[in-house]
Amino acid sequence: MLTIPFIRENRDLVIRQLKIKNFDAETIIDQILKKDLSRRNNQVRVNELQSEMNQASKAIGLLFKNGEKDQANQAREKTSELKEEIRALQSAMQQASSELNELLIQVPNVPHASVQQGKSESDNEIIRKGGSVPDLEENALPHWELAARYDIIDFDLGVKLTGAGFPLYKGDGARFQRALISYFLDRNTESGYKEVLPPLLVNADSGFGTGQLPDKEGQMYHVQSDDFYLIPTAEVPVTNIYRDVILEEGDLPIKNTAYTPCFRREAGSYGKDVRGLNRVHQFDKVEIVQIQSQENSYQALEEMVLHVESLINDLQLPYRIVRLCGGDLSFTSALTFDFEVYAAAQKKWLEVSSVSNFEAYQANRLKLRYKKPGEKKTLLAHTLNGSALALPRIVAALLENNQTSEGIRVPSVLHKYMGKDLIK
RNA sequence: GGAGGAAUGGCAGAGUGGUCGAAUGCGGCGGUCUUGAAAACCGUUGUCCGCCUACGGCGGACCGGGGGUUCGAAUCCCUCUUCCUCCGCCA
Questions:
Q1: CATH number of A4-104, picked from 1.10.287, 3.30.70, 2.40.30, 1.20.120
Q2: How far apart are CA A386 and CA A338, in angstroms?
Q3: pLDDT of the residue at A66
Q4: Residue–nucleotide distance: A230 CA to B2 C1' (Å)
């Protein structure tokens, strides 16, 4: 969430910039400022009374020590009124600050200056294209049919075991998953990311820290008996490693990468682009996460974009990079670049990565801060993450684009992981 | 799952109702000494909120989380969480 001092000092800017996200912030921002002011006034009063009370208590202690019992008891009676007053004010203050918090978490992150106004993904700006679309035969098959032909992904068995959207990978299909995961992890660690393997279930605090809770509660699977959430992305556990942490500036940047399965309920998206691997409830993804200083976060974002681009290039997939418009930008993000690859049989662009800078928005929720050398003041860190990469749609595009009459060509960078160059 | 014990500052570890934000040691930072370094010695060392014409002063909160008792709680009570020991079960 945004910090109160930031809102206080940048009221107009916040309202103006949030219009780009199609969010009318004026009313809520003014409510926040009003509540903040009254909370502060209240606190001044409470602090005064507490100070008075502390002094009185000290005096009473001294009287008892000196054996002046009567005087002490007299003084004690006098404090009861003060005590009542403090109690009342404190509970009012608690109420106010929880109301303030309630309002604050409803305000999305302010978009970066480069983000354009727009309603939906159709307004996203294509900033770069690469690779070349293969010349497929007229009767080229979509990946779900290829999956059946080579018996490498079984959607029906997934339905039997769990339900729709939980594919079962078999044989070379399973091996292919493992190959991609290993390849991505190796490339990421070569680029300075440290590999971590986090828990797949997280608590509510973690869900809140990265912004999935409370607004996107319905997107996650919830284990009610223990109040855990299945992670929708490795971003959640990997970023929450640094919840309530104060780093030294010299520790930055922190770069982590993690492979995890991801679980998404995708409620309400039935019937829309859900064939095959296009949209599933459980999928594998390798994520990269950076913790950066305020000055360097946009440079880091650029670096992450180039890194993801190089992965896609090496898989020889046709791709495009888009800058999300205000309407398509997530609640917590300031700037996001999506990567889409072209699945040539479906003739569709499929999103395979989303690289974002959250600036201090998550860090404020996480209480993730850092200190410059020799300075006492703490600063909120900037958090960034991106998929490098999400597997299902990469697999979909590779199967479709690389189909030949002999079988499916395995990209050369994966040969050593697959132990073969053709799936047949 | 059953029975006990514990949770204090970056770490170790005192403190069981009254100047305790918290002894002491280690670490960190600054300094003296030294050609330099080490040792020794001296000083310093948390976070958050707020107020004040402020590169400083003051007030408040924080001793695992939450709640309670009390004029006053790190210290007492309740509850949750985590860790350790023993028993049971188990990949």
A1: 1.10.287
A2: 9
A3: 78
A4: 30
Q: Which nucleotide is nearest to A77 (CA to C1')?
A: B71
What DSSP string runs through A377-412? Answer: -EEEPEEEEEEEEEHHHHHHHHHHHTB-SS-EEPPG
pLDDT at A98 over 90: no
Q: Is the CB of A47 under 7 A from strand B?
A: yes
pLDDT, average across residues A398-404: 96
Domain spans of chain A, in order of start? 4-104, 121-423
The answer to whether strand B lies under 7 Å from the CB of residue A76 is: yes
Single out the residue of A363, A329, A298, A341 nearest to residue A19, CA to CA: A329
| A121-423 homologous superfamily | Bira Bifunctional Protein; Domain 2 (3.30.930.10)
Over residues A119-129, the pLDDT tens digits come to 988 999 999 99
- Strand B contact nucleotides, protein CB < 7 Å: 18-19, 46-51, 59-61, 71-72
